[in-house]
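SEQUENCE, STRUCTURE TOKENS:
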Amino acid sequence: MRILLAVAVLGLATGRAPADEPVFEPGATLKVEAGEGAGGEGPAWDPELGVLSSGNGNIHRLGRDGKSTVHKKGAGTNGLLFLRDGRLVACESEKRRVTRTDRDGKVTVLSDRFDGKRYNTPNDLTVDSKGRVYFSDPRYGNRDGMEQADAAGKPVEGVYRIDPDGTVARVIGREVERANGVLVSADDRFLFVADNANDTPAGARKLWRFPLKADGTVDMAGKKVLYDWGKGRGPDGLKQDAKGRLYVAAGLNKPNPPAEPDAAVKAGIYVIDPESGKLLAFQGVPTDEVTNCAFGGDDLKTLYVTGGGTLYSIRTTTSGRVVWPLRK
């Protein structure tokens, strides 16, 4: 288990950060933006709407005026992501499907089955430069009705890719225990996967990096564990800043035995080097569970964090990498 200290780092692949550069703005503190379940999961920034997030079965909206409202009641979503054209893709976990919503509100089901079988519970999603959407499909809690399995009949909680023509492929199967957060790197070279069987004693609590091929398939031979949370709460959602650093939601503020007995793995945002896996910084979050984060604001230097039903924000020194809005 790595000691949770903020440390300096040499330059990263997408832009060299000075060794003494802070990750969060000096003096910045965590700010509560919305409560009452508004910050449950999947934050996503839109320059017109503000921040959308999933919670209490709804999609919530934190407007540019700072007011929190219900944007879409009964949506049943988890992960949310704006595509390059401003359309919203969502993991509708309750209906076990992935959808796309146009700017005018029209909803299209991108996929609700693979090989004729329903998904477990679509959770998080990401997109590459070719417009291919990747999403994770774990199952937490009640595991009745799981249909996705390998050739031997063993459950699969993996990662799928939806191509622009609607074709769906499973890119990661039982190579992970339970895929949660997913992220494609800016250059399409890597797929980062949070492998988090957090309700299982001795289950995976790892952040993996898988090489991606040009056709959108994964090179299993080159996979690498970047960080392991050991016996604590493992990784959930993650994002990346313009210099390539990974911002990973993970941890708990108190142990949860028998599955998560390690009290040292605190709840918050773990900032990790995408090459070495070194922990660069840590920002604690007071409410459990910390589920995801997203960059936003006009300069993309505000990190929004969902945790325990609360939506927080904190300022960073580097802008985040987003696919929408397009940078000029």
